[in-house]
Design a protein that fits this description.
It contains 4 helices and 4 strands; from the N terminus they run βααβββαα. With about 110 residues, the chain is an alpha+beta fold. The protein has one domain. The protein starts with a strand and ends with a helix.
């Protein structure tokens, strides 16, 4: 059973992304395309540092970083549409699911061309 930690990943905090609600649609410091680029950079740094699991939600995904494996602890990543997964999916997630996700990602990445 996974536990969700509060707060945002440090990569999002450092770039002042997603403070309250979907900040990409607010007027202010950055335009939408700049914020999207900053989110992409933050996501790449998170993926280098830890495993990112995702769950299909509506027409996009809900993204979570694995903070700790035993006991399983996740932190929500407000990436792209910033969806959150259903609490039942999170409660049912376990380490075996994370390992299977890593294996699938490795498999598909080895098959990609370019």
């Amino acid at each position: 059973m996974a536990r969700i930690l509060k707060g945002l990943p440090p990569e999002f905090i450092e770039r002042k992304l997603y403070p309250y609600g979907d900040s990409r649609y607010r007027r202010g410091e950055h335009e939408w395309t700049d914020r999207h680029q900053l989110e992409d950079e933050a996501m790449k740094l998170i993926e280098k540092r830890t495993t990112v699991v995702k769950q299909q939600v509506a027409d996009s995904y809900a993204y979570y970083e694995v903070v700790k494996r035993q006991p399983l602890q996740l932190r929500w990543i407000p990436y792209c549409d910033a969806h959150e997964a259903h609490p039942a999916w999170i409660r049912g997630l376990n380490l075996a699911d994370v390992i299977q996700h890593e294996q699938w990602e490795e498999f598909f990445n080895s098959r990609r061309v370019g």
